[in-house]
């Protein structure tokens, strides 16, 4: 019987060997199982079973076999297979422990170790592992190892902002070219990165087109990741429409890479922001696909979660927004974004005080990140109109007190509140900070930095502008000391001293350059004929009487606009001097005597202001022969006799019948045009 069993086992082993060489692992597994029925603890058969299960993608079952037969399949025998199964089942930490506990570090384990470190985002260790592999390996997989090495460098550049060293890798494949482009994106070299991606696309097309079985659709599917990165560069460059178009083209291809789809969907959501939220809600589903968490880095997954919370806020899902942001905060307590999202949601609900309180609590708990939070708090206070409180918050950010941007913002806000003393105090504190910093950096009297001098200059100008000349003296003296040839500063200093110490002002005035040295050789004619002198010359012409009409005439030619001549009354007499009070209402004129009593309303003229109907003197009962003559009107002249019927031009009416009511109304609408 034993001989028969041995013969059967030999036949089965031959079958296993033949199937293994043909790659038919399903049939090989059947033969291995028959061998194990004969001898259940056959180490070689168990090893073959594990390999067959791995080749068929049954990693869980393979790991089960390993764990069931731990006495037979010891770690030194099956370490690689166990670690590989754990790696493929995304049990990365377990895979690392299995590799580290192996008695002997084989080349296979070292290769797997590099992959595990990459998945754990331990890029420095990973880089060292791959360098060691490339140095000590000579086989047909050298290109793959170099590709993995370049992927590590790209990840460092992107996620850790490490400037990568030049590894001297020859970018002969599209994978190497693509990874190089990713590293350049991490450094912000977008134009160079785009050129690399274009080269990668070209290499990819060449490589795949050599295979006659590859269709155009297969090529486009392979290019999807390259095109996705191109679209990302476009988005970073502000070409959002182009980026959106390319993103949507990739989605239409329905690529099998769930990680790529999730990234593209997330980027589309960031373009949409608070617009097109219906499209964003559809795209969110792509980010929730199964297996996404194993395809992307921690920072990518975190960014997707942040955007989900923001989208919930934009779609007025307040509870969902709070739930997501609270979850993010528990995962990353020191991270700014979750608390900022919660504060934004509270502001949308008009709970500004609660939002400020939330931000204040975070700032107290995490002093290292307090600066950005306090800037947000100040913004909220300004939105509420509490400018002074906003200033207090900003001034509590010690690490930003000396920054020119902060000084400028505080001075502007205090000036708006008319708190000049506080604004000057802000300048003083910033200048003192630079003085202390300079003293700590240098022992000698080195010149002040440009920023320091700029602050002193701004402080001096601010004080002078607000009438604080005495306080500006020390700043101006410091500026003049740094640059004794600065005449403008010297003039300001003399002006300031003239109020405090006139004698000192006189002494300083001796340093001013003489009028001879300050005279400029200017070609006056050339200056007047220059393009910019037209307006000045035109204004100056108003001072002279003779040139006025001439210059006005020139202006009219330039404008090509004729001035209309004023219309004169029809009965205008050039010999009579016009009434100087003609533009005043009748009631305000010196010769106005008030309305005559007993006058019928229908007899009152309704023409232009001050006009009378013909024969009004005959109708006036008060005008009799015994009436005293009226006093002469101003400007009427002695040549006009008391009995003259001449009416000043403003009061004249056409001869003939009295005008009808309709015509009088028309005259009233037109008004008096011209200079009379």
From TrEMBL:
Bias type Basic and acidic residues, positions: 570-591
Gene3D superfamilies the UniProt entry points to: Tetratricopeptide repeat domain
Record's subcellular location: Cytoplasm; Endoplasmic reticulum
GO MF assignments: 7S RNA binding; ribosome binding
Keyword tags: Acetylation, Coiled coil, Cytoplasm, Endoplasmic reticulum, Isopeptide bond, Phosphoprotein, Repeat, Ribonucleoprotein, Signal recognition particle, TPR repeat, Ubl conjugation
Limits of the Signal recognition particle SRP72 subunit RNA-binding domain: 538-594
Compositionally biased intervals (Basic residues): 558-568, 660-676
PROSITE patterns: TPR
Chain intervals with Low complexity compositional bias: 605-639
Main location: cytoplasm
Sequence ranges of the TPR repeats: 224-257
GO CC field: cytosol; endoplasmic reticulum; signal recognition particle, endoplasmic reticulum targeting
Biological process per Gene Ontology, one example term: SRP-dependent cotranslational protein targeting to membrane
InterPro entries, A to Z: Signal_recog_part_SRP72_RNA-bd (IPR013699), SRP72 (IPR026270), SRP72_TPR-like (IPR031545), TPR-like_helical_dom_sf (IPR011990), TPR_rpt (IPR019734)
Alphabetical list of SMART domains matching this protein: TPR
Coiled coil: 92-147
Stretches for region Disordered: 539-676
Recorded family membership: Belongs to the SRP72 family.
Function: Component of the signal recognition particle (SRP) complex, a ribonucleoprotein complex that mediates the cotranslational targeting of secretory and membrane proteins to the endoplasmic reticulum (ER). The SRP complex interacts with the signal sequence in nascent secretory and membrane proteins and directs them to the membrane of the ER. The SRP complex targets the ribosome-nascent chain complex to the SRP receptor (SR), which is anchored in the ER, where SR compaction and GTPase rearrangement drive cotranslational protein translocation into the ER.
Protein name: Signal recognition particle subunit SRP72
Organism field: Callaeas wilsoni (North Island kokako)
Gene: Srp72
